[in-house]
Amino acid sequence: MSKFIPGRVRSDYAADIQAIRDRHGDDVIVDWLERYYASPDVDRDDVMVGLGIDFVGTFYEPVRAYDVQKPEPDPAEEARQGEVMRLLLNGKEVLPELRQPAAWKWTIN
């Protein structure tokens, strides 16, 4: 399991982070952070609502304080994003097939 590293929390956020830990426990916090890193369907706002965090600054403290494994980047997606940026910065048209990640392709069940 990922572990909480208190030295990574800034002192002005320590009481807020401790309140979140007391309210939810480390297992729940780690679960939310793992979902945040692993799924494009879970964003910062989802985590903030799930953990009862009111301020964006407070959100980033658990991100820093917990040593959560992040998934490896997808090389094909990295290449697609690089190509899109190259075309945009050169003032060229971005082809429709480059505008969306390959993972967004429609599938029929």
Counting DSSP E segments of at least 2 residues, the number of strands comes to: 0
Q: What structural category do the secondary elements indicate?
A: mainly alpha
Q: Whole-Å distance between the termini?
A: 35 Å
Low-pLDDT stretches are: none
Describe the biggest sheet?
none
Query: How many structurally independent domains?
Result: 2
What does this structure look like?
The protein is mainly alpha-helical and 109 residues long. It has two domains: 6-65, no CATH class; 75-104. 52% of the residues lie in helices and 0% in strands. The protein has helices at 14-24, 26-38, 44-51, 56-65, 75-89. The longest helix is centred in the last third of the chain and has 15 residues, at 75-89. It is elongated.
Keywords:
single chain; 109 residues; mainly alpha; 2 domains; 5 helices
SSE diagram, text form:
Elements: H1 14-24, H2 26-38, H3 44-51, H4 56-65, H5 75-89
Helix pairs in contact: 2-3
